[in-house]
């Protein structure tokens, strides 16, 4: 059979897989953002007590030190032992919690790259600590964070493919299905799959870059 | 907890047999990736338009698509063109090619961060361009790149687990195998996670040591 | 407490790791007065200034602003009534000049945006920068940034302005424009405490000069006495060094 026919016939399945990958990506990034921001704020402005700070350090170490495939298996088999969870749910959770460990560090260095004088000046003008964080430190930190966050976004797109190992029917697994049913088009199918990831990555990067440009402040150090 | 330890006593020896495989996969791939990365970096910074273009396309392509897809392409796709590799070689090639793209980018960043005056000064005291690069540029650029390079090396160490999907018998694959024999996937992957955590932490400390050993005031930050 | 003091600093002490930086400092400031703190580096001038608005929390002593004691509990409200000008400006880097001068009026004092804008333009005009309202801090010279930061402090309608070595981070050719603005403010009757090495400013604009060394006030008095016939050897030695190098 002609490869173009195969592609025409199978492309809808690939798009469906792409859709699953995008939903997974969005969900894990949101979880990672909210949790990561929370961790970062506690680390920077929370109580200095070891009881609070140590578990956070441990959390980051573990999620950054263990391969995502292992985490996916641990979450999938660990949770499904006590509670009925779909492979997709386990993937969202494992990858979201893991992304939080990375995002918290991105946010932390972004906050730390705002000179201490900015907070001091805001406080000297009578702003409370929370107001100073909200109006002065956060807007600057956000600008510092967009670049590294774009990198995190890129790696997470690619890592959604690993949800394949616990059976989430995302783009890579759809490709695998197609290959097993239609021998002989492996190269084409994977080339198309690679192209889809590439386009998704590029589109996301361009949007984030546009955001960065839009928020750019003349002379504001990178 | 007791269950966890008992499981470990029974199965850890078998799991640990994967460690040499994982480590050799990693060491071979990042070493080859290092040299390929240097070449790509050279092509992008000093090469003519042709080399620049080839190198840029390579870097974009490999950074824009998932490692899993790259590995499938090499292991499952290339045989259709008559190019056949065993699983271990295919994994080495995939990780090498992927890592080279990232290493090239980090090298480029650090080469560009060495002040132009350094090369000018080297040339003006009679060095050839090659000498200037070899004795002045590289020692500074390589020192500066250590932190990012360490990160990249650790990411690739975790990525070796992807080789499991094409059947390389490394830690993850042995874990999955033990899982299907004991039907206790959760425990075995917890133990696999511990092994990876020990590996990544050890590598991180060793690379941190390297960074401190090569520290030169004013060239790198502590 | 003397009745008409705007700022009353009583017996302020501060130590870092057992090293006493301020060993019990007190002075007062009447409305419209300008006092200049001078002394060798490490004498505690900047620490004293920072203690006044609790950027550095003093270990002991009391500070009153218009009769109200400055405490940790009311610190934000008290700071809103004291303008502070930093050595390194600390303009908010992500905001335009106009927004720098507006934001605390709006967020801290609750001023309407229109009124805050009007006030901001007035203060920018006062420091001679009305044409820079839309610029970002990084687009300005150091001298211009410092003038914006003075406008930012003035816009809060403070009872007193505190200057922490406002010209020390500037190239010599840029100090003049900042000093002129400060002289003009002193002449207009602004109440100010200034830590500086600019002796020309001290000489012309100060009502009183306070010489500090080793965490103590060694001597204080009107500039004419301090500069010409100081009774203290330490003060004379310091002024001689400044005269030679400054």
Nearest-angstrom radius of gyration of chain B? 21 Å
Query: What is the percent of helical residues of chain C?
Result: 25-40%
Indicate the percent of residues in helices of chain B: over 70%
How many structural domains of chain B?
A: 1
Task: Give the overall shape of chain C, derived from the CA principal axes.
Answer: globular
Number of strands of chain C: 10
**N→C terminal distance of chain C:** 38 Å
> What composes the largest sheet of chain C?
6 strands, mixed
The CATH architecture of chain C is 3-Layer(aba) Sandwich
Q: How many domains, in number, for the residues of chain C?
A: 1
Beta-strand content estimate of chain B? under 5%
- The SSE order of chain B reads HHHHHHHHH
Looking at this protein, list some descriptive labels.
heterotrimer, A: 222 residues, mainly alpha, MetI-like fold, 8 helices, flat, C: 246 residues, alpha/beta, Rossmann fold, 6-stranded mixed sheet, 4-stranded antiparallel sheet, 9 helices, globular
What would you note in describing this structure?
The complex is a heterotrimer of chains A (222), B (222) and C (246). Chain A is mainly alpha-helical. Chain A has a single domain, classed as MetI-like fold (Orthogonal Bundle), CATH 1.10.3720. The mean pLDDT of chain A is 90. Helix content of chain A is 81%, strand content 0%. Chain B has 222 residues and is an all-alpha fold. The longest helix of chain B is centred in the middle third of the chain and has 31 residues, at 129-159. Chain B is flat. The model of chain B has no long low-confidence stretch (mean pLDDT 91). Chain C is an alpha/beta fold and 246 residues long. Chain C has one domain: Rossmann fold, CATH 3.40.50.300. Helices cover 39% and strands 25% of the residues of chain C. Chain C has nine helices and ten strands. Chain C has helices spanning 45-52, 75-80, 97-107, 113-126, 142-154, 172-187, 199-205, 223-229, 233-245; strands at residues 5-16, 19-30, 34-38, 60-65, 68-69, 82-85, 160-164, 192-195, 208-213, 216-221. In chain C, the strands form two sheets. Chain C has a six-stranded mixed sheet with strand order 6-7-8-3-9-10, sandwiched between helices. A four-stranded antiparallel sheet of chain C has the order 2-1-4-5, with helices on one face. The mean pLDDT of chain C is 92. The chains are: A mainly alpha (222), B mainly alpha (222), C alpha/beta (246). Chains in contact: A-B, A-C. Chains A and C meet through helix 5 and helix 6 of A and helix 2, helix 3 and helix 5 of C.
């Amino acid at each position: 059979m002609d490869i173009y026919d195969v592609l025409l016939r199978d492309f809808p399945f690939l798009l469906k897989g792409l859709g699953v990958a995008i939903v997974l990506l969005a969900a894990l990034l949101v979880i990672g953002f909210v949790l990561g921001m929370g961790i970062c704020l506690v680390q920077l402005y929370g109580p200095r007590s070891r009881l609070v700070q140590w578990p956070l350090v441990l959390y980051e170490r573990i999620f950054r030190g263990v391969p995502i495939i292992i985490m996916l298996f641990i979450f999938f088999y660990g949770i499904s032992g006590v509670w009925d969870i779909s492979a997709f749910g386990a993937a969202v959770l494992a990858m979201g919690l893991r992304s939080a460990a990375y995002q918290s560090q991105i946010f932390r260095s972004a906050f730390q790259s705002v000179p201490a004088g900015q907070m001091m000046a805001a406080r000297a003008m009578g702003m409370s600590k929370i107001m100073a964080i909200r109006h002065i430190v956060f807007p600057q930190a956000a600008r510092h964070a967009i670049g590294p966050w774009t990198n995190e976004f890129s790696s997470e797109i690619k890592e959604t493919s690993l949800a394949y190992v616990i059976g989430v029917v995302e783009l890579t697994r759809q490709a695998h299905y197609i290959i097993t049913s239609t021998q002989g088009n492996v190269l084409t199918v994977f080339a198309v799959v690679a192209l889809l990831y590439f386009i998704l990555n590029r589109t996301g990067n361009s949007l984030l870059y546009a955001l960065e440009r839009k928020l750019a402040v003349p002379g504001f150090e990178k | 907890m007791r269950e966890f330890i008992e499981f470990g006593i029974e199965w850890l020896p078998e799991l640990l047999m994967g460690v040499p495989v994982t480590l050799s996969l990693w060491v071979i791939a990042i070493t080859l990736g290092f040299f390929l990365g240097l070449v790509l970096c050279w092509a992008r910074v000093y090469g003519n338009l042709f080399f620049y273009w080839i190198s840029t396309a390579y870097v974009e392509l490999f950074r824009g698509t998932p490692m899993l897809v790259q590995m499938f392409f090499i292991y499952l796709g290339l045989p259709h063109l008559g190019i056949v590799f065993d699983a271990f070689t295919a994994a080495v090639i995939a990780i090498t090619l992927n890592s080279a793209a990232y290493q090239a980018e980090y090298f480029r960043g650090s080469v560009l961060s060495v002040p132009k005056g350094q090369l000018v000064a080297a040339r003006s005291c009679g060095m050839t361009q090659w000498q200037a690069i070899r004795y002045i540029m590289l020692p500074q650029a390589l020192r500066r790149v250590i932190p990012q390079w360490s990160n990249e090396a650790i990411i690739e160490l975790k990525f070796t687990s992807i080789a499991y999907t094409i059947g390389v018998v490394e830690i993850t694959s042995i874990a999955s195998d033990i899982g299907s024999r004991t039907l206790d996937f959760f425990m075995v992957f917890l133990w696999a996670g511990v092994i990876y955590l020990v590996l990544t932490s050890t590598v991180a400390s060793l690379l941190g040591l390297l960074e401190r050993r090569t520290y030169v005031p004013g060239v790198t930050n502590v | 407490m003397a009745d008409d003091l705007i700022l009353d600093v009583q017996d302020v002490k501060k130590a870092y790791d057992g090293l006493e930086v301020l060993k019990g400092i007190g002075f007062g400031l009447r409305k419209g007065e300008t006092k200049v703190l001078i002394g060798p580096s490490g004498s505690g001038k900047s620490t004293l200034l920072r203690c006044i608005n609790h950027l550095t929390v003093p270990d002991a002593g009391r500070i009153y602003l218009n009769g109200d004691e400055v405490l940790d509990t009311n610190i934000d409200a008290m700071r809103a009534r004291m303008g502070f000008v930093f050595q390194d400006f600390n303009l908010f880097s992500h905001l335009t000049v106009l927004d720098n001068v507006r934001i605390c009026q709006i967020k801290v004092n609750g001023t309407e945006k229109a009124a805050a804008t009007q006030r901001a333009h007035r203060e920018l005009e006062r420091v001679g920068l009305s044409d820079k309202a839309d610029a970002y801090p990084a687009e300005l010279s150091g001298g211009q940034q410092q003038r914006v930061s003075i406008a930012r402090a003035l816009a809060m309608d403070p009872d007193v302005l505190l200057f922490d070595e406002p010209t020390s981070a500037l190239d010599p050719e840029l100090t003049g424009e900042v000093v002129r603005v400060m002289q003009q403010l002193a002449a207009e009757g602004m109440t100010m405490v200034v830590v500086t090495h600019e002796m020309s400013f001290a000489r012309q604009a100060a009502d009183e000069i306070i010489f500090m060394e080793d965490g103590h006030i060694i001597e204080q008095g009107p500039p004419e006495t301090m500069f010409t016939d100081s009774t203290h050897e330490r003060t004379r030695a310091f002024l001689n060094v400044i005269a030679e190098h400054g």
